[in-house]
């Protein structure tokens, strides 16, 4: 594979991966304006974010089998078309209930891009390169938190929040064109793959029962919920508590994203010297320590705006290092069922993210305490899952070796 082709593949796959985060990040600065426009509260507007997370979580389980049955491109086209239609529906939303519903449908469509991109990494690149490729995708993905909130802040300020959803629809159209002309079909349709409920459920169960998958998919999803806690809380914390404007919030969001993106690229260097499992362990331990300090500082009211930004930045660095490795480790055992495995991986992340975002919306605390507390709980639980899961992985390997030796 030439370096030019490698670059274009990463760029297109990264754009697919970034569609859902872009859909989240761009409208965050508009929360106060949406609340005023639809005569509701910012907490109720946050439910449109929760419905988006729920839609992505549920939709990924749908697209996994479709990608394994029909190949990667046809389900992707369907999902992107649905995303465009729902984005237009968001533009015309006249009530918070309609916006919440349209965001759910938008997520159902957009998650096709997320599942397809992760699956095609497993299709196109060697297993040993997957962690590196995922880190490069995060580099492209990083355009979302760096660009989207800033653009969203200016668009909201000058043209109104509704235009954001037209921009998202145009982005989806451009992605369809890029996929059609430049992205190869990486997996032929399998006419023997059954879409009946029993075989699909059986396929999901087979994936879930694999110790390496459930260990790193669950721990990675839990750790990633620290990012969702930040995304869900940040409009309230920065614009309501610290009273920054939507434009300044966009810049803060962009600055904080550097931690997540930069750490993922440091990971590309780390995987050359250390195993992914080792990197995950260290990243999660660091996340626990930093989150504990964040909770303490929030409870004692010691941080202020600058201190809060620093603590979030450090937590996002830990997530950025852990995430590519947990994804690569979770998908490594699969080849034929890569679509199903990718769907489950994404569903774990988004399901946990939806729970976190709903939980955040229930807190009425005018501080960073809920955000920091969830980050501490997430990192501690993720580390616990890894430590327990590693024993099961080791036992499975030892069992296979013993079985092979017996024969």
UniProtKB/TrEMBL annotation:
Q: Which organism is it from?
A: Mucilaginibacter lutimaris
Intracellular or extracellular location(s): Cell membrane
Q: Which PROSITE patterns match?
A: MFS (PS50850)
Recorded hits in Gene3D superfamilies, A to Z, give: Multidrug resistance protein D (1.20.1720.10)
The residue ranges crossing the membrane are 7-24, 44-63, 75-94, 100-121, 133-155, 161-183, 213-231, 251-271, 278-296, 302-322, 343-363, 369-389
Record domain Major facilitator superfamily (MFS) profile: where:
9-397
Query: What Pfam families does the entry give?
Result: MFS_1 (PF07690)
**Does the keyword field hold Transport?**
yes
**Family per similarity comment:** Belongs to the major facilitator superfamily. Bcr/CmlA family.
Transport among the record's keywords? yes
Matching entries from SUPFAM superfamilies are given as:
MFS general substrate transporter (SSF103473)
What is the official name of this protein in its record?
A: Multidrug effflux MFS transporter
UniProt topology in membrane: Multi-pass membrane protein
Q: Which UniProt keywords apply?
A: Cell membrane, Membrane, Transmembrane, Transmembrane helix, Transport
Q: What is its main location?
A: membrane
